[in-house]
Predict the 3D structure of the following.
Amino acid sequence: MKNTKIVVLLVAALLPAFAAAQSMFRGDAAHTGVYQGAGPREFHRVKWAFPTGARVVSSPVMKDKVVYFGSDDGNVYAVGADDGRQVWMRSTRGAVSGTPAIAGESLYVTSFDGSLYALNTRNGAMRWKFVTEGERRFEAKGLHGMTPKDQTFFDPFDIFLSSPVVADGLVYFASGDSHLYAVDAASGELKWKFKAGDVVHASPAYADGVLYFGSWDSYFYAVDARTGQEKWRFHGGEDPLIHNQVGFQSSAAVVDGVVYVGCRDSNLYALDAATGKEKWKFNNNGSWVITSPAVTKGKVIFATSDSSLYYVVDAQTGKQVVKQQAKAYMFASPAVAGGVVYQPVLNGTLEARDLETGEVLWSFRTEASKRNKYWALTADGRFNIPMLFRSQAGDSQIPTVERELSVGSMLSTPLVANGTVYVGSNDGNLYAID
Amino acid sequence: MRTLLIALAAASAAAAFAAPPAGRWIGEAQIPYNDMPLVLDLAQDASGAWIGSLTSPGFEIKGAALGNLKVAGDTVSFDIGNVLGAPPDGPATFSAKFGKDRMAGEMRQAGNKAPFELKLTGTAQVDLPPKSTAIGRELEGRWVGTYELGGYPRQVTVDLANQPGSTAKVGFVVVGKMTTNVPVDFISEKDGTLRFESSAYRTVFEGVIGPGQIKGTLVSGPFEVPLILRRPTEKAS
């Protein structure tokens, strides 16, 4: 009896970390981006499209044949995975631009209203709400060269919210208020908080009792998940002039004692998980690495922004294995399932690539992309730079980004489950493709 | 300059109705969800050759010189150089049929196509493109400098030379993590200031010529950085 109790307790303790293969950002707590089973190697159809009131930046997660995700219309949605019918909808007071995490019958998700919500997965009823010190986007004087240079501008590319990770009965998430929080999963009680130097919108990865995340303060941190004490920090690049090449927007993946993370300083880093020492870096000539890398079979998969390149590199050495030119910038992260990599692109397409060769197997293009509002795209699907960057005026990047993302851009990371790919689009839809 | 414009305007006024399609034409190109306003000025110069310019409020296009301008019968066609993209996406081209006071045709840019319609509203006010000048012999030769953008240093090499026709030419290379040959389509030396521009890259250098250096700023799109050009044998900054 005593032994049985211990076993039951152990299983219960392990559940939040391991019963969640498709129920949190990047598939698991270590954010490997690898999904069990196979997704479609050929495009057959759009199984269904679920419309929301605004863009879907949030990445879908799944449990018991229900898909959960957020929308920038401020709502959290539960939708039937098979039929695309709404199960429930729950409002927040801000854009839900992060990805939910599910543990047991609770769903945890952040909102631009500055709160972490715990909802009942069955009906969306609120279990508790944890209020942070306030959400905000990264901002800096003269950001990206905008003028007047002494004016503070918010970063229109700071799109994603931190997605919670659940382990050992705690919910961990970060905030624009610069903190990493640990909150009791059952009660919402604050256990500890860790202050970084600036906005944290990356999602913490959890491995072996340690949380890994980066901040816009140019540092990447490892923090003890039990105590909130810093174990080490790694310094990425700085850009004091225009703050363009600084900050960790990418979320890390942790595999076999190595942390892989992209950075706005244009590097993909591999760091020793125990010490934070740099093992290697892969430079991308000024092009941001916002995507969160996927790691599988000794390979690291990531993509870049301005140079629009898709890469597979060796996990041990960082040497290039595959390089493919895509048509447009990539901010959303690759998802791997059954030898296929699903990579969303900002031109409003989802590309399926062969894991070994990087060749495009198929692509799905949204209707918004085909409509090509503002001529944001060239006829062959690349960004049409002269029509995007129309103005020399200092703050013109803000409408420029709006034009860029008007083509059904895909910022959401795909979920692969039961032979189907689920992905959100800036056109306001969540798509199920098989 | 003003006189020239008045003369052109007067000539155009006479020509507007006598020699279509001379005049100022105003309308829009129907780009999806975002009509593009067009102000097209067409006139004939003293030799009878067609000249023109295009302005598009909101698209940061003012007085773009028309290239490959052809008028034949009731059709007109032209491009606007690198203003909306260098090859392979540019130049943006326009072709249309015109009547007494209406013009309708097609705009093409980066493989996209959109119809446009214009109405004749008055006399032409053609913006004449600035003409490059020659430069002082002491400026000829190689200049180098460096600047930092986005946390990375860039090496600049500028080769200046006069050429037949009383204008100068510029070789402008920027080396960061990549090497970029920036095509320059305008250069002038005036009142102790050197200025050169690349419309394709929306880049302008303007600097004051001093002893052994040209001290100025480089503006590229929204970015503006200080840049001092010096002879390569001296330390560049």
Remarks:
- The radius of gyration of chain B is 21 Å.
